[in-house]
């Protein structure tokens, strides 16, 4: 928190808006991409107010582009008359080579494109996308057990250092 009560800004010009914590648990992340978003003015205002949810969002190829689906950006109340629909598909801005690479992977069986985070970088809205495979129930249990084991080892090491 800064002196005015708002969120602290990192030195590199990145201000986090929302994170998709469930995606890191439910999917095995293989590759990450940073993409811009094509937004309307009221959507940007709503993002700055933090009125966004990534919980059910995913990206998919549509025509020659990639679109973000089910990303809920709530209405900006002062612009309610000329507002935007909260669940519309939003175009992702990537280089053509990146789009083709992602398209090739997504068309393979088992891969999906999930958003991990939404943030402002130097004033531009960006989304961090992950090319991921879904985890099975057993994989999730293994991940939890591995995380708990690592946590116990770290605790033991910190006790020993004291």
From TrEMBL:
Region (Disordered) location: 138-162
Cross-referenced InterPro entries: SmpB, SsrA-bd_prot, SsrA-bd_prot_CS
Zinc-finger among keywords: no
SUPFAM superfamilies: Small protein B (SmpB)
Keywords: Cytoplasm, RNA-binding
Keyword Cytoplasm attached: yes
Pfam families (UniProt xref): SmpB
Subcellular location as annotated: Cytoplasm
Reported function: Required for rescue of stalled ribosomes mediated by trans-translation. Binds to transfer-messenger RNA (tmRNA), required for stable association of tmRNA with ribosomes. tmRNA and SmpB together mimic tRNA shape, replacing the anticodon stem-loop with SmpB. tmRNA is encoded by the ssrA gene; the 2 termini fold to resemble tRNA(Ala) and it encodes a 'tag peptide', a short internal open reading frame. During trans-translation Ala-aminoacylated tmRNA acts like a tRNA, entering the A-site of stalled ribosomes, displacing the stalled mRNA.
Similarity remark: Belongs to the SmpB family.
Protein name: SsrA-binding protein
Organism: Anaeromyxobacter paludicola
Organism classification: Bacteria, Pseudomonadati, Myxococcota, Myxococcia, Myxococcales
């Amino acid at each position: 928190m800064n002196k005015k009560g708002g969120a602290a800004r990192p030195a590199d010009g990145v201000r986090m808006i929302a994170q998709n914590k469930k995606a890191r648990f439910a999917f095995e992340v293989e590759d990450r991409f940073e993409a811009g978003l094509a937004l309307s003015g009221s959507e940007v205002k709503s993002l700055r107010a933090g009125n966004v949810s990534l919980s059910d969002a995913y990206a998919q190829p549509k025509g020659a582009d990639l679109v973000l689906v089910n990303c809920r950006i709530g209405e900006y109340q002062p612009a309610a008359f000329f507002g935007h629909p909260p669940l519309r598909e939003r175009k992702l801005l990537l280089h053509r080579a990146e789009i083709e690479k992602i398209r090739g992977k997504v068309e393979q069986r088992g891969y999906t494109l999930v958003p991990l985070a939404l943030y402002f970088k130097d004033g531009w809205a960006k989304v961090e996308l992950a090319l991921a495979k879904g985890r099975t129930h057993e994989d999730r249990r293994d991940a939890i057990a591995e995380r708990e084991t690592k946590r116990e080892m770290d605790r033991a090491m910190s006790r020993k250092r004291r």
